Structures are given as structure tokens and as C-alpha cells.
């Protein structure tokens, strides 16, 4: 007998990707229930070759649910995750609300799977920000080999990272530019079509944005608190797939060839690094894929033990849905949970 899985936020970008990934990976679920707000009551979403009718979160009884995959934002998660956990389901949450709680593990299975046991404290496991997830997958094998001291990262983040309405806005604006209609901005602070915006999430007192702060704090929590990191997060007019230009300073020497070899055999990584036109990964190829693609690996002669690289991944999959489902698989493979119906 398999597990009962609830997907909260099933009509959203991440929720739909979760249902897709659950079906693709033949996740051992006997029952999958799609939940969203009351607005979506009865809306149909795809799960493999089946269609599921959405139910409303606020009327749902979680007492027979084993695993709840949450992707309905921080406000919903703050209120609902503790209630769902109290009903006996393990919550794997995609919002930022629980990520910095010392009693909630923040997990990228390729990097810190062992920390997953910490879920017992609150019954909640957090999934990192999409930009952090792909970054730590690429950094982990390099850190194990040569110890990272400092990272400088610039992101090129797709609009799907801001939800389904943000994707609609890029589409509508692009069309409006071509038809010479008025270009309206509601989700983004400036026009995103044919533009880039160096601002994601709110501004903090020190001038950094919260998205940039998240990358610092989450990299420390997942990989190593000693790593110093500074980020500039930028929204670009790409629908799916985040890219990152990453400068890394190590304590010990490491060559570009060594880094390439380490990354080639690292879990979750695919190296595409030919020094010729098109010999690198772009978001277009990463969309719909599970891997973190690493390209343009080179030595940085301006610092001691420095490397530069380019890394690309599907933000809805490794950055959210896939990572959450890998966490659930980790709980099952390590026998940390059992199906309630089986246990009864
Ligand atoms: N997109 C990414 O790359 C990414 C990566 C990592 C983490 N995340 C996080 O994942 C979460 C979801 O992101 P998304 O991109 O999927 O957003 P989205 O496309 O805007 O979808 C939001 C989902 O939340 C549901 N929802 C909203 N209010 C609700 C309520 N009161 N009760 C129940 N359901 C409610 C919506 O249902 P209705 O359709 O009924 O409104 C919808 O299913 C966010 O916390 C986001 O920060 C996103």
C-alpha cells in the first residue's frame, strides 16, 4: 500500500509541476489530492494521464494524509503547515516562511539529505529558494574538494519564479509591444518584456533585496555557515529556467579541469562545457529537465584559487517541485515515515 499525498497550490506553477513530477517518477502514492483556494474549487489539473478536481484547502481534513506538498505562499503556509503537521502529515513547504526556523530542516537532497531527520521537531521540511537550490547543487562537490571561502553570484531569473500571473504579464507585455498597445505592469515594478529588472522581492535596510539575502542565509544553512556569499538577483524576460554567473574563491587550489571532472560525477549535475559557439547550457534547454547544468568553467586569475562558472536549471523543477519530491523520496527510502493506512 502506498502513501496519500496532498498537493496544496495545485493550480499554481509549482503545484502543477509537482503533479507532473509525482507522475513521471512513479512516486509510490495510492491517492493524490489536489488542493487550492476556494476560487479553484472544481478546477481540473493533470496528474499523469488522469485529471484531478481541485478541492478547497480550508475545508480539507488531513487526518489520513501522509505527505503534504505545500506551494501556496508564505501566508497560507504560516497558518496551515502547523495544522497539517498536527494532523500527522509531513509537510514539505516551498514558501520562504519556515526556511530560517532552527527547528525546520532546509533540504537539498544532493547536499544535506542527512539533515532531513530534523523534521520530527515540527513535522515541517522547507524547500529552498529556486536560485539557492541549483547553486548549492553545483557548489557542493567543489566545496568538498577545495573548501569554498567566498561566492559572488549574479542571477538571471525567469518570470515563472514569480508565479503564474507573472508569466501572463510577460506574455501580455510582449504581445502589446508588437501590436503597439499600452504595456501594463502589475506584477513587476517595471516593464519586463524586452527588459531586465535588478530587483526581486522587497528591499532591506542595507540596500540588498530579500531575494539576495535568502541566497546568503540559505547557502549557509544548507552547505556551510562559514561560506561568505554576495548576490545580485535580476529578473529577465525568460519564461522558465534560472541562470547564474558564479565567481568562487577557494581555500585550496583547484583547476578548471578538476572542477569539470568533479561536477561530471556529482549527483544532479550535467556539465556542458565546450569552448565554442553553443557549447554551453541556456534556460531554453534546461526547461522541463531535472539537472543543474554547468558551463563556462574557467580559472579566475584575479584572485587566489578562483573559479568562474555558469549554471542553469529549471526553477519550477529543481528549484521547487522536483526538490520537494526528492525530499519525500528521501523520507521513504530512509524509512523515516510509513503510510498511515499501512500502519493502521
Ligand atoms: N515558482 C518558483 O520557481 C518557485 C520556486 C521556489 C519556491 N516557490 C514558492 O512556491 C510557492 C508557490 O509559487 P507558484 O509560483 O506556484 O505561485 P502561483 O503560480 O501564483 O500559484 C499559487 C498557488 O497557491 C494557491 N493559493 C493561493 N492562496 C491560497 C489560499 N488561500 N488557499 C489555498 N491555496 C491558495 C493558488 O490557488 P488558486 O489558483 O486557487 O488561487 C495557486 O494554486 C510560493 O511560496 C513561491 O515563493 C516558487
Explain this structure to me?
The mean pLDDT is 97. The chain has 344 residues and is an alpha/beta fold. It contains 10 helices and 14 strands. The chain is globular. NADP nicotinamide-adenine-dinucleotide phosphate binds at residues 9-15, 36-37, 39-40, 57, 71-74, 76, 94-95, 129-130, 160-161, 163-164, 315-316, 319-320.
Q: Biggest sheet, open or closed, and with what strands and sense?
A: 6 strands, parallel
The best one-word shape is globular
Radius of gyration (CA) equals: 20 Å
Helix content: 25-40%
**Tally of helical runs:** 10
List low-pLDDT spans. none
Alpha-carbon distance between the two ends: 11 Å
Structural class category: alpha/beta
The number of distinct β-strands equals: 14
Keywords summarizing the entry:
about 350 residues, globular, alpha/beta, binds NADP nicotinamide-adenine-dinucleotide phosphate, six-stranded mixed β-sheet, six-stranded parallel β-sheet
Short structural summary:
By secondary structure, this protein is α/β, with parallel strands linked by helices. 31% of the residues lie in helices and 24% in strands.
List the helices and strands and how they pair.
Layout: E1 3-8, H1 13-24, E2 29-36, E3 44-47, E4 50-53, E5 55-56, E6 67-70, H2 74-86, E7 90-93, H3 109-112, E8 124-126, H4 130-146, E9 148-157, H5 164-178, H6 210-222, E10 228-235, E11 242-250, H7 256-264, E12 269-271, H8 283-286, E13 292-299, E14 306-313, H9 317-333, H10 340-343
Parallel strand pairs: 1-2, 1-6, 2-5, 6-7, 7-8, 9-10, 12-13
Antiparallel strand pairs: 3-4, 9-11, 11-14, 13-14
The structure holds NADP nicotinamide-adenine-dinucleotide phosphate.
NADP nicotinamide-adenine-dinucleotide phosphate is lined by residues 9-15, 36-37, 39-40, 57, 71-74, 76, 94-95, 129-130, 160-161, 163-164, 315-316, 319-320.
Amino acid at each position: 500500500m502506498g502513501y496519500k499525498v496532498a498537493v496544496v497550490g495545485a493550480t499554481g506553477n509549482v503545484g502543477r509541476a509537482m503533479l507532473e513530477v509525482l507522475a513521471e517518477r512513479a512516486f509510490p502514492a495510492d491517492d493524490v489530492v489536489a488542493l487550492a483556494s476556494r476560487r479553484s474549487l472544481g478546477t481540473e489539473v493533470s496528474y499523469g494521464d488522469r485529471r484531478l478536481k481541485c478541492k478547497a484547502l480550508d475545508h480539507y481534513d488531513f487526518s489520513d494524509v501522509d505527505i503534504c506538498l505545500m506551494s501556496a505562499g508564505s501566508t497560507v503556509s504560516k497558518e496551515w503547515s502547523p495544522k497539517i503537521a498536527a494532523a500527522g502529515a509531513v509537510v514539505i513547504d516551498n514558501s520562504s516562511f519556515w526556511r530560517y526556523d532552527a527547528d525546520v530542516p532546509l533540504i537539498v537532497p544532493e547536499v544535506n539529505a542527512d539533515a532531513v531527520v530534523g523534521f520530527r521537531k515540527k513535522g515541517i521540511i522547507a524547500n529552498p529558494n529556486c536560485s539557492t537550490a541549483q547553486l548549492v547543487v553545483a557548489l557542493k562537490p567543489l566545496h568538498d574538494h577545495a573548501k569554498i571561502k567566498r561566492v559572488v553570484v549574479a542571477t538571471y531569473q525567469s518570470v515563472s519564479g514569480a508565479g503564474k500571473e507573472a508569466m501572463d504579464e510577460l506574455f501580455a507585455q510582449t504581445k502589446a509591444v508588437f501590436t503597439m498597445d499600452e504595456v501594463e505592469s502589475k506584477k513587476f515594478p517595471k516593464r519586463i518584456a524586452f527588459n531586465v529588472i535588478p530587483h526581486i522581492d522587497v528591499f532591506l535596510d542595507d540596500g540588498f533585496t530579500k531575494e539576495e539575502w535568502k541566497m546568503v542565509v540559505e547557502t549557509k544553512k544548507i552547505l556551510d555557515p562559514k561560506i561568505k556569499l554576495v548576490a545580485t538577483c535580476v529578473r529577465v524576460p525568460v519564461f522558465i529556467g534560472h541562470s547564474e554567473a558564479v565567481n568562487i574563491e577557494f581555500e585550496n587550489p583547484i583547476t578548471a579541469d578538476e572542477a569539470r571532472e568533479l561536477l561530471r560525477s556529482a549527483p544532479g549535475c550535467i556539465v556542458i562545457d565546450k569552448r565554442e559557439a553553443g557549447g554551453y547550457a541556456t534556460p531554453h534547454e534546461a526547461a522541463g529537465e531535472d539537472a543543474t547544468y554547468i558551463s563556462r568553467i574557467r580559472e579566475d586569475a584575479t584572485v587566489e584559487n578562483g573559479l568562474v562558472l555558469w549554471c542553469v536549471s529549471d526553477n519550477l523543477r529543481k528549484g521547487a517541485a522536483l526538490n520537494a519530491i526528492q525530499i519525500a523520496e528521501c523520507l521513504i527510502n530512509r524509512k523515516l515515515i510509513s503510510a498511515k493506512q499501512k500502519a493502521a
